[in-house]
Design brief:
This protein is mostly helical. The protein contains 16 helices and three strands.
Length: 378
């Protein structure tokens, strides 16, 4: 799962204060609003975004960000998120104390909202310029010529028939492979190699340099429900490495897809599939095919519960054991905050061209069916 958390600075930037001293506040706000409006108008044409941003200027932005921070052994973006969280809590406590002491007057509140308005506009502008405009591109289906038409229950059954075979075969090959002993760096390096392989077929999936980091907040992600996320302000991909190991290869490929400018979750899932399936590493095959099977299985379960259960019964016992491990892991971390976070994240996705919210991840099934129909294999 990808969570792009917006960053806001802890201190009012000195340069902005200087500008506000020299110019009327509303002139500066008006300029920011104008820039935001221009970004919005530019983003309304998917063809224009694809040509001039997603395959034009954005690849250079992504490469520059990765080169700037790939040398760091830790995630700078995670440190920024942590700093922002601490700062917000500190500000909230300070505001409550002032409120209790009756020190919050109209001027203080007015100043707070003035500063907040500028910060929100700056976040919107930099988020979009650095990455967010990619939500409006034509995307991977356009690039490889997929016909994204409506699919039937029978189409999902045909897909699941293939995926069950792929999952069982890759798991069989891994029975004597110590998957749980794979090091984080090994997974990240092999994901990089997977993209090196897939670029031979799709040159636009060229990925260099690599900037994949272990999430500092993985323990928190277990309770909030995320496996990984991309930071658009630092260009780093973070992976939650505290979850079951078999899920991490595909998650890593998914986050790299975000780095390459595939912002929508269904597209990142599909691009992650293209890379993982191109890998020579069976661990990546198992990771991606199992996840894709579970996505398709959820889609099928809504339409034909009996058929969905029949496919589950076809899985090898070792695969069922992995699914059980995943369910137990999730159950251990259930908490009242997770549904709220999922709802908020769903609203974020809906506001960025993904009307299905968190269910957008499941929509990779449509990509897989179209791909299978066109190429006859997975």
């Amino acid at each position: 799962m990808n969570i792009s958390i917006q960053f806001s600075s802890g201190h009012f930037p000195g340069a902005i204060l200087s500008v506000m001293k020299k110019r009327p506040y509303w002139i500066f706000v008006g300029l920011l609003v104008l820039v935001a409006l221009l970004i919005h108008l530019f983003s309304r044409d998917a063809g224009r975004v694809e040509r001039f941003y997603s395959t034009g200027i954005y690849p250079q932005i992504g490469v520059a960000l990765r080169y700037a921070l790939t040398w760091l052994p830790f995630s700078l973006g995670d440190l920024l998120y942590g700093y922002v969280l601490v700062w917000l809590v500190w500000k909230l406590v300070a505001a409550l104390r002032k409120l209790a002491k009756g020190q919050l007057n109209g001027d203080r509140v007015k100043l707070f909202f003035k500063r907040a308005l500028i910060k929100l506009l700056l976040i919107y502008i930099f988020f979009n310029l650095l990455w967010g405009i990619n939500y409006n591109r034509k995307g991977i289906a356009h690039q490889i010529g997929l016909s994204m038409e409506s699919y039937t229950v029978e189409d999902v059954k045909s897909l699941n028939t293939v995926l069950v075979q792929k999952v069982n075969a890759s798991k069989l090959a891994l029975l004597h492979y110590p998957l749980k002993e794979m090091k984080n760096r090994d997974i990240f390096n092999r994901a990089h190699s997977a993209y090196a392989e897939v670029q031979h077929r799709y040159q636009f999936l060229y990925y260099q340099p690599s900037s994949i980091k272990v999430s500092m907040w993985g323990w928190l992600g277990n309770y909030l429900g995320f496996l990984g996320y991309y930071n658009p302000f630092s260009g780093e991909a973070q992976v939650n490495t505290s979850v079951p190991k078999f899920s991490q290869p595909y998650t890593t490929c998914h986050e790299i897809a975000h780095q390459l400018g595939y912002a929508k979750e269904n597209e990142a899932n599909f691009v992650g599939y293209l890379a993982a399936a191109s890998s020579s590493d069976t661990a990546f095959h198992y990771s991606v095919y199992l996840d894709l099977f579970l996505y398709a299985e959820r889609n099928l379960y809504k339409a034909d519960t009996t058929a969905a259960k029949a496919f589950l019964n076809q899985l090898r016992p070792e695969v069922k054991s992995d699914i059980k491990e995943w369910q137990q892991f999730h159950n251990r971390h259930k908490n009242p905050a997770e549904p709220v976070i999922r709802w908020l994240y769903g609203k974020y996705l809906e506001s960025n061209q993904q009307p299905s919210g968190v269910l957008s991840y499941d929509e990779v099934t449509g990509f897989m069916i179209s791909y299978y129909k066109k190429f006859g294999q997975l």
